[in-house]
Amino acid sequence: MAENQQAAAGSQNENQPQFALQRIYVKDLSFESPNSPLVFQEQWKPQVNLDLNTSHNKLSDNQYEVVLSLTVTAKIGEKTAYLVEIQQAGVFLVSGIEGPQLGQMLGAYCPNILFPYAREAIDGIVGKGSFPALMLAPVNFDAIYAQALKRKQEEGGEEAGKQESQTH
Predict the structure, then answer these.
(1) What are the b/e assignments for 101-132, b being 16+ CB within 10 Å?
(2) Residue span of the structural domain in which 90 resides
(3) DSSP 106
(4) Is 57 helix (H, G, I), strand (E, B) or coil?
(5) Is residue 13 situated within a structural domain?
(6) Going by fewer Cβ within 10 Å, which terminus of the chain is more open, N or C?
């Protein structure tokens, strides 16, 4: 009888949604300061632009790679002070979640986990370029995902949520 209960509990656990972060890594990182050292003589009141994209790839039945791509451009007038590009990635185990919930997980929840790592890497590389610290504001990935989903539905896209894009 105890064996039957254990077997039943085991089959219930297999059907339960599971999510686990397996690895976080920098896939690509680039820093450019094309107008150094002359830009250091300018008054530091930059216009900072953030572009971000997310994408995901299925690695196996339950494993997905999610990539958060950020491009930060700081300009003083027409001069580019610096340009940082990063692809912060993670491998996630996701099982028992399908359809729109899976899309939401890969398109909003996972990028939300990756963002603080990307933000820290950007701040570090900007500091090494001898520029003042840059602490990016939090991003609402749920809203970005919802906008991308709506845009895909309006365009008649069948793979809504596969890739999102937003400019700040």
Answers:
(1) ebbbbbbbbbbbbbbebbbebbbebbeeeebe
(2) 24-155
(3) I
(4) strand
(5) no
(6) N
